[in-house]
Amino acid sequence: MIKAGIIGATGYAGGELVRILTGHRDVEICWYGSRSYIDKKYAEVYQNMFQIVDAKCMDDNMDELSREADVIFTATPQGFCASLVNEEILSRTKIVDLSADFRIKDVDTYEEWYKIKHPSPQFIPEAVYGLCEINREAVKKARLVANPGCYPTCTTLSIYPLLKEGLIDPATIIVDAKSGTSGAGRGAKVDNLYCEVNENIKAYGVATHRHTPEIEEQLGYAAGCPVLINFTPHLVPMNRGILITAYASLKKEVSYEEVKAVYDKYYDSEKFVRVLEKDVCPQTKWVEGSNYVDVNFKIDPRTRRVIMMGAMDNLVKGAAGQAVQNMNLMFGLKESEGLELVPMFP
């Protein structure tokens, strides 16, 4: 059995990790880390785990944890993992970091957008960006994986094939994104109170959202050149889900069949990316609680643009599910182990 430790086990992403790993046949959770609830029973924090998890919450001592765990998941705020990781810890265990600490290869860009000094930039070059469908082979050999952000996962998977094949102009990409409130985390914030969110929808982080450089970097790899995008996220009054609608100008006239063939080339053999049938638009309801990403597109011949769409659960494929998918690859397990989660409805 693989022994897994979770630091940040009482946040939304950490709780989802516990839910998924509890059903994983090859994993035993040995550490439920939570600075806020040390010595409190985990099932008292998340009552859905009553009589399922008997353990108490522990501290965030990564050095001690690295001596017990084969893999550590850090579902923590930016700067935390990077402040604790060192060569000795990485020599003993593998790490899947759900924060942004190692996602962006340029440390100056990270510090500019996240407004903090990076504590351990020496590990950035070796960290593998854990978007399995694109970096699968590198993830298999990694000891440190940067689990992608939720918006970047959905956006990249929706756009990547057409950009990689040179069908769209990278200078024309606009991304409109919407997310449920769990994407903001479990911490108490006025903006996330029920009365603030209910019966309301709003844009936020306009032209400043911290996932922007992460998306641009990944799309840049696909395009083979630097990419700048307009990215605007919106908060919608639901618990889970991300929906992105992206727009770009086509470089040439193409048919539906030609574009569909490009998506199939990249995703036909992918378990968790579902290319929908013609004219079916992705919906968050059809991926809720699962590790699936539903993608599709629509050609607009009038404007010579293509609309690329994606939907996924921000807590599963956008966080915990993708982290487990990465772990499976790192340990040579079946990639979908523990993730055969049928989307919930209603």
Report, as a whole number of angstroms, the end-to-end distance: 35 Å
Outline type = globular
The unreliable regions are: none
Write out the strand line-up for the largest beta sheet, numbering strands in chain order.
Answer: 8-9-7-10-13-12-11
Q: How many β strands by DSSP?
A: 13
The whole-number mean of residue pLDDT values reads 97
Please provide a written account of the structure.
By secondary structure, the protein is α/β, with parallel strands linked by helices. The chain folds into two domains: 2-126, NAD(P)-binding Rossmann-like Domain (Rossmann fold); 151-314, Dihydrodipicolinate Reductase, domain 2, CATH 3.30.360.10. 31% of the residues lie in helices and 19% in strands. It is built from twelve helices and 13 strands. Helix 7 links the parallel strand 5 (128-129) and strand 6 (144-146). The protein is globular, with a radius of gyration of 20 Å. It starts with a strand and ends in a 16-residue tail after the last helix. The model has no long low-confidence stretch (mean pLDDT 97).
Topology:
Layout: E1 2-7, H1 12-22, E2 27-33, H2 42-45, H3 62-66, E3 71-74, H4 80-84, H5 87-92, E4 94-97, H6 107-114, E5 128-129, H7 132-140, E6 144-146, H8 150-164, E7 174-179, H9 194-197, E8 202-203, H10 212-223, E9 230-235, E10 242-249, H11 256-267, E11 273-275, E12 293-300, E13 305-312, H12 316-330
Parallel strand pairs: 1-2, 1-3, 3-4, 4-6, 5-6, 7-9, 11-12
Antiparallel strand pairs: 7-10, 8-9, 10-13, 12-13
Please sum up the structure shown.
With 346 residues, the protein is of the alpha/beta class. It has helices at residues 12-22, 42-45, 62-66, 80-84, 87-92, 107-114, 132-140, 150-164, 194-197, 212-223, 256-267, 316-330, and strands at residues 2-7, 27-33, 71-74, 94-97, 128-129, 144-146, 174-179, 202-203, 230-235, 242-249, 273-275, 293-300, 305-312.
